[in-house]
Protein backbone atom coordinates (compact mmCIF):
# COMPACT_ATOMS: atom_id res chain seq x y z
CA UNK A 1 0.00 0.00 0.00
CA UNK A 2 1.31 3.44 -0.92
CA UNK A 3 2.52 5.61 1.94
CA UNK A 4 0.00 8.24 2.96
CA UNK A 5 0.68 11.63 4.63
CA UNK A 6 -0.33 10.26 8.04
CA UNK A 7 1.42 6.88 7.80
CA UNK A 8 4.24 7.81 10.20
CA UNK A 9 2.00 9.69 12.65
CA UNK A 10 -1.14 7.66 13.28
CA UNK A 11 -0.30 4.39 15.08
CA UNK A 12 -1.54 1.24 13.36
CA UNK A 13 -3.59 0.37 16.44
CA UNK A 14 -5.46 3.68 16.21
CA UNK A 15 -6.09 3.17 12.49
CA UNK A 16 -7.51 -0.27 13.32
CA UNK A 17 -9.76 1.34 15.93
CA UNK A 18 -11.31 3.53 13.21
CA UNK A 19 -11.79 0.45 11.00
CA UNK A 20 -13.47 -1.39 13.88
CA UNK A 21 -15.94 1.48 14.28
CA UNK A 22 -16.79 1.37 10.58
CA UNK A 23 -15.09 4.60 9.53
CA UNK A 24 -13.06 5.14 6.40
CA UNK A 25 -15.29 3.58 3.77
CA UNK A 26 -15.10 5.14 0.28
CA UNK A 27 -17.99 7.33 -0.82
CA UNK A 28 -19.91 7.34 -4.07
CA UNK A 29 -19.19 10.15 -6.54
CA UNK A 30 -21.80 12.01 -8.52
CA UNK A 31 -21.95 13.14 -12.14
CA UNK A 32 -21.25 16.86 -11.82
CA UNK A 33 -18.21 17.83 -9.75
CA UNK A 34 -17.29 21.34 -8.70
CA UNK A 35 -13.79 22.45 -7.74
CA UNK A 36 -13.21 24.64 -4.68
CA UNK A 37 -9.89 26.50 -4.59
CA UNK A 38 -9.81 27.86 -1.05
CA UNK A 39 -7.57 30.79 -0.08
CA UNK A 40 -4.83 30.14 -2.64
CA UNK A 41 -3.64 33.74 -2.59
CA UNK A 42 -0.22 35.32 -2.27
CA UNK A 43 -0.85 35.84 1.44
CA UNK A 44 -0.75 32.04 1.91
CA UNK A 45 2.18 31.17 -0.39
CA UNK A 46 4.16 34.38 -0.93
CA UNK A 47 4.79 36.12 -4.24
CA UNK A 48 7.91 33.99 -4.80
CA UNK A 49 8.72 30.37 -4.10
CA UNK A 50 10.70 30.47 -0.86
CA UNK A 51 11.20 28.33 2.28
CA UNK A 52 8.78 29.03 5.10
CA UNK A 53 11.01 31.25 7.25
CA UNK A 54 11.92 33.41 4.27
CA UNK A 55 8.37 33.56 2.96
CA UNK A 56 6.83 34.83 6.20
CA UNK A 57 9.02 37.92 6.02
CA UNK A 58 6.71 39.04 3.21
CA UNK A 59 3.38 37.77 4.60
CA UNK A 60 3.22 36.34 8.14
CA UNK A 61 0.35 34.10 7.03
CA UNK A 62 2.39 32.44 4.26
CA UNK A 63 3.11 28.71 4.27
CA UNK A 64 6.04 29.05 1.89
CA UNK A 65 7.23 26.14 -0.23
CA UNK A 66 4.50 23.70 0.82
CA UNK A 67 1.90 26.11 -0.55
CA UNK A 68 3.70 26.38 -3.87
CA UNK A 69 3.96 22.59 -4.14
CA UNK A 70 0.24 22.23 -3.50
CA UNK A 71 -0.51 24.86 -6.12
CA UNK A 72 1.66 22.94 -8.59
CA UNK A 73 -0.69 20.00 -8.06
CA UNK A 74 -3.82 22.12 -8.30
CA UNK A 75 -2.81 23.43 -11.75
CA UNK A 76 -3.41 20.18 -13.73
CA UNK A 77 -6.55 19.44 -11.73
CA UNK A 78 -7.88 22.90 -12.58
CA UNK A 79 -6.99 22.33 -16.25
CA UNK A 80 -9.06 19.14 -16.22
CA UNK A 81 -12.06 20.98 -14.79
CA UNK A 82 -11.73 23.66 -17.46
CA UNK A 83 -11.44 21.02 -20.17
CA UNK A 84 -14.60 19.30 -18.93
CA UNK A 85 -16.49 22.57 -18.51
CA UNK A 86 -17.18 21.87 -14.84
CA UNK A 87 -17.70 24.64 -12.26
CA UNK A 88 -14.72 26.22 -10.50
CA UNK A 89 -15.31 28.31 -7.39
CA UNK A 90 -12.89 30.41 -5.37
CA UNK A 91 -13.76 30.82 -1.68
CA UNK A 92 -11.26 33.43 -0.52
CA UNK A 93 -10.55 35.95 2.17
CA UNK A 94 -11.18 39.49 0.97
CA UNK A 95 -9.34 42.51 2.43
CA UNK A 96 -10.54 43.22 5.95
CA UNK A 97 -11.40 46.44 7.70
CA UNK A 98 -11.24 46.88 11.45
CA UNK A 99 -14.88 46.23 12.29
CA UNK A 100 -14.96 43.00 10.22
CA UNK A 101 -12.21 41.17 12.04
CA UNK A 102 -14.37 39.49 14.66
CA UNK A 103 -12.75 36.89 16.88
CA UNK A 104 -10.10 36.16 14.27
CA UNK A 105 -8.67 39.67 14.61
CA UNK A 106 -8.47 39.10 18.35
CA UNK A 107 -6.90 35.66 18.04
CA UNK A 108 -4.57 36.40 15.10
CA UNK A 109 -4.17 40.21 14.87
CA UNK A 110 -1.58 39.90 12.08
CA UNK A 111 -4.39 38.91 9.72
CA UNK A 112 -5.59 42.52 9.77
CA UNK A 113 -2.34 43.93 8.39
CA UNK A 114 -1.88 42.00 5.16
CA UNK A 115 -0.93 44.28 2.23
CA UNK A 116 -3.35 44.34 -0.70
CA UNK A 117 -0.97 42.31 -2.85
CA UNK A 118 -1.49 39.41 -0.50
CA UNK A 119 -5.14 39.09 -1.47
CA UNK A 120 -4.38 38.59 -5.17
CA UNK A 121 -4.59 35.16 -6.80
CA UNK A 122 -1.37 33.72 -8.23
CA UNK A 123 -1.46 33.75 -12.03
CA UNK A 124 -1.01 29.96 -12.13
CA UNK A 125 -4.52 29.40 -10.74
CA UNK A 126 -6.17 32.78 -11.34
CA UNK A 127 -9.94 32.79 -11.90
CA UNK A 128 -11.47 32.99 -15.36
CA UNK A 129 -14.44 35.28 -16.05
CA UNK A 130 -17.00 32.46 -15.73
CA UNK A 131 -15.64 31.19 -12.41
CA UNK A 132 -17.45 32.00 -9.17
CA UNK A 133 -15.74 34.15 -6.53
CA UNK A 134 -16.93 33.52 -2.99
CA UNK A 135 -15.62 36.10 -0.49
CA UNK A 136 -15.65 34.77 3.06
CA UNK A 137 -14.87 36.04 6.54
CA UNK A 138 -14.77 32.76 8.45
CA UNK A 139 -12.98 29.41 8.11
CA UNK A 140 -15.75 27.49 6.39
CA UNK A 141 -16.38 28.51 2.79
CA UNK A 142 -20.08 27.89 3.50
CA UNK A 143 -20.53 30.02 6.62
CA UNK A 144 -22.14 33.37 5.81
CA UNK A 145 -21.66 32.97 2.05
CA UNK A 146 -23.76 31.99 -0.96
CA UNK A 147 -21.61 28.95 -1.70
CA UNK A 148 -24.31 26.35 -1.06
CA UNK A 149 -26.73 28.26 -3.28
CA UNK A 150 -24.02 28.61 -5.94
CA UNK A 151 -23.36 24.87 -5.97
CA UNK A 152 -27.04 24.01 -6.19
CA UNK A 153 -27.56 26.49 -9.02
CA UNK A 154 -24.60 24.98 -10.91
CA UNK A 155 -25.94 21.45 -10.42
CA UNK A 156 -22.90 20.32 -8.46
CA UNK A 157 -23.27 17.04 -6.57
CA UNK A 158 -19.60 16.33 -5.78
CA UNK A 159 -17.25 18.91 -4.26
CA UNK A 160 -13.51 18.60 -4.81
CA UNK A 161 -11.76 20.66 -2.14
CA UNK A 162 -8.28 22.17 -2.57
CA UNK A 163 -6.35 25.00 -0.91
CA UNK A 164 -5.53 25.88 2.66
CA UNK A 165 -5.16 25.42 5.45
CA UNK A 166 -5.81 21.70 5.84
CA UNK A 167 -6.51 22.05 9.55
CA UNK A 168 -8.51 25.28 9.20
CA UNK A 169 -10.51 26.48 6.21
CA UNK A 170 -10.22 23.22 4.29
CA UNK A 171 -11.40 21.13 7.21
CA UNK A 172 -14.21 23.57 8.08
CA UNK A 173 -15.40 23.61 4.47
CA UNK A 174 -15.22 19.83 4.13
CA UNK A 175 -17.30 19.30 7.26
CA UNK A 176 -19.94 21.74 6.03
CA UNK A 177 -19.97 20.26 2.51
CA UNK A 178 -20.53 16.85 4.08
CA UNK A 179 -23.21 18.31 6.35
CA UNK A 180 -25.06 19.70 3.31
CA UNK A 181 -24.93 16.20 1.78
CA UNK A 182 -22.47 16.99 -0.99
CA UNK A 183 -20.18 14.13 -1.92
CA UNK A 184 -16.76 15.44 -0.93
CA UNK A 185 -13.28 14.66 -2.22
CA UNK A 186 -9.89 15.97 -1.06
CA UNK A 187 -6.86 15.40 -3.31
CA UNK A 188 -4.20 15.10 -0.62
CA UNK A 189 -1.39 16.85 -2.51
CA UNK A 190 -3.66 19.82 -3.32
CA UNK A 191 -4.14 21.05 0.25
CA UNK A 192 -1.53 22.59 2.51
CA UNK A 193 -0.78 23.83 6.00
CA UNK A 194 2.08 25.52 7.86
CA UNK A 195 2.13 22.56 10.25
CA UNK A 196 2.82 19.22 8.60
CA UNK A 197 1.63 17.40 11.72
CA UNK A 198 -1.73 19.18 11.64
CA UNK A 199 -1.88 18.64 7.87
CA UNK A 200 -1.37 14.90 8.15
CA UNK A 201 -3.60 14.31 11.18
CA UNK A 202 -6.46 16.34 9.73
CA UNK A 203 -6.22 14.56 6.37
CA UNK A 204 -6.50 11.25 8.17
CA UNK A 205 -9.49 12.35 10.24
CA UNK A 206 -11.23 14.00 7.27
CA UNK A 207 -10.79 10.83 5.25
CA UNK A 208 -12.19 8.64 8.01
CA UNK A 209 -15.33 10.71 8.61
CA UNK A 210 -16.25 13.24 5.96
CA UNK A 211 -14.61 12.82 2.56
CA UNK A 212 -12.61 10.65 0.22
CA UNK A 213 -8.98 11.67 0.72
CA UNK A 214 -6.99 10.35 -2.23
CA UNK A 215 -3.81 11.04 -4.19
CA UNK A 216 -4.48 13.66 -6.85
CA UNK A 217 -3.52 11.26 -9.65
CA UNK A 218 -6.26 8.87 -8.53
CA UNK A 219 -8.76 11.72 -8.23
CA UNK A 220 -8.00 12.86 -11.77
CA UNK A 221 -8.26 9.32 -13.15
CA UNK A 222 -11.71 8.93 -11.64
CA UNK A 223 -12.82 12.35 -12.81
CA UNK A 224 -11.82 11.56 -16.38
CA UNK A 225 -14.24 8.62 -16.33
CA UNK A 226 -17.25 10.75 -15.40
Helix content: 25-40%
The shape is globular
What order do the SSEs take from the amino end to the carboxyl end, as H and E?
HEHHHEHEHEHEEHEH
- Strand pairing plus helix content: what structural class? alpha/beta
Q: Spell out the CATH superfamily.
A: Isochorismatase-like
Strand content: 15-25%
Name of the CATH first level: Alpha Beta
How many discrete structural domains? 1
> Which architecture per CATH?
3-Layer(aba) Sandwich
Radius of gyration: 17 Å
The total beta strand count reads 7
Task: State the distance separating the first and last CA atoms.
Answer: 25 Å
> At the third CATH level, what is the topology name?
Rossmann fold
Helix count? 9
Q: Could you give a short account of the major beta sheet?
A: 7 strands, parallel
- Unreliable runs, pLDDT <50, ≥5 residues? none
* Rounded average pLDDT: 94
Characterise the protein shown here.
- This protein has 226 residues and is of the alpha/beta class.
- The chain has a single domain, classed as Isochorismatase-like (Rossmann fold).
- Helices cover 39% and strands 15% of the residues.
- Strands 1, 2, 3, 4, 5, 6 and 7 form a 7-stranded parallel sheet that branches.
